[in-house]
Write a structure and sequence with these properties.
The chain is an alpha/beta fold. It contains 9 helices and 9 strands. The protein starts with 7 loop residues before the first strand and ends with a strand.
Amino acid sequence: MTPNNNTTDFGFTQVSPQEKTRRVTQVFDSVATKYDLMNDLMSLGLHRLWKRFTIELAGTQRGHHVLDLAGGTGDLAAKFVPLVGPEGQVVLADINASMLQVGRERLLNRGLVVTYAQVNAETLPFADQSFDIITIAFGLRNVTDKDAALASMFRVLKPGGRVLILEFSEVQQPWLKPFYDVYSFQVLPRLGKLIVKDHDSYRYLAESIRMHPNQDTLLQLMQRAGFERCDYHNLSCGIVAVHRGFKL
């Protein structure tokens, strides 16, 4: 199908925006209960280091209000809770009810108090200038209208606030690309079939990474949304990158 104004990408397939929303919901409904296990297996545990680096870049202070978008099972939210202290607030937000439920149960079992919200990143239901920090980890590539999502994040940030986007990106080492392609399109789907009984969702994962804007393109999207002092940090040879931008 040829892309046009009425379609968007779902992996390598062009579908209507409504169909993408439905299919992405199906993907995460399918993988929610094994999401953490699959993250550990797929990244060999590296996702924990990537998230720790993101937290370090955030510059969190006590009393800050933090929005963790596409927060899923709550990895980042859990780390923010002790940093903001009782004076602050952490909102764990996700568009997918299954993921949000898994995250809620996980954090409650750890005795962590956060606020939960089922939201669409493109139309955040929060007041202007509500948050000091917004994070979105491995979620932006699933958003249909990334410009709308970035604009919505910019709106709800306080002046001086910052957004951090942790996402798969473009591998920077040419020698690594063929090995990464084999891993992405052959190993990951088979791993998904073995662990989650779902080959197609992990095929979509590999395709969605290739369709996501690369490092410089995403930086330009952030600047277009109004963010300033934008930068990015490549991790693991660019397999992932952390983008940061400020509302000044």
